Amino acid sequence: MPLDPRYAAQVRLLVQVIPYVAAERCCRPMAELLAPRWKPLAGVFQAEFAGMTREPVTLGQLEAAREALLTAIRQQFDEQDGAFLISIKQGKPDWTTLNLPGIDRLPAVQWKLHNVRQMPAAKRMEAVAKLEAVVEQLLAG
Question: Taking Cα atoms as reference points, which of 35, 16, 36, 12 lies closest to residue 108?
């Protein structure tokens, strides 16, 4: 039975997002990526974004898109995703938690692991605790 296209798109989104969060490519801690504190976009929008797209995009549309993306991630986030991210943050990844062959070979994920393992134990424990709190909130809905 083929997947509903909306469901398939959501699955693709989550499969793309979880490795991104694990790698923290944008240099923010995992907990902040999953529970961001949005900065105002107006100045950046005017200086760096307005007029750069094929189709006109308003500031309101851009702000709505980031909220919609976060909402979609939160709605699809499950215990396996949380357990995987926490295992990465602990420096002991459980690759079997996610059904994503090859995630263990992604350079960005390996670099993240290297950095996590270099953290002082107290700092790592603090980061794990923050992530666990965010994961708990996400799973509670």
Answer: 16
Q: How confident is the model at residue 6 (pLDDT cuts 50, 70, 90)?
A: low
Higher pLDDT among residues 7 and 115, named by residue: 115
- The DSSP result for the chain, as a single string, is -PPPHHHHHHHHHHHHHHHHHHHTTTS--HHHHHS--PPP-HHHIIIIITT-SSS---HHHHHHHHHHHHHHHHHH--HHHHHHHHHHHTT---GGGS--TTGGG-HHHHHHHHHHHHS-HHHHHHHHHHHHHHHHHHHH-
Structural domain total, the chain: 1
In this prediction the pTM is 0.73
pLDDT in tens, 46-80: 888 888 888 888 899 888 888 888 888 888 889 99
| Domain range enclosing 44 | 5-140
At 51 the pLDDT is 84
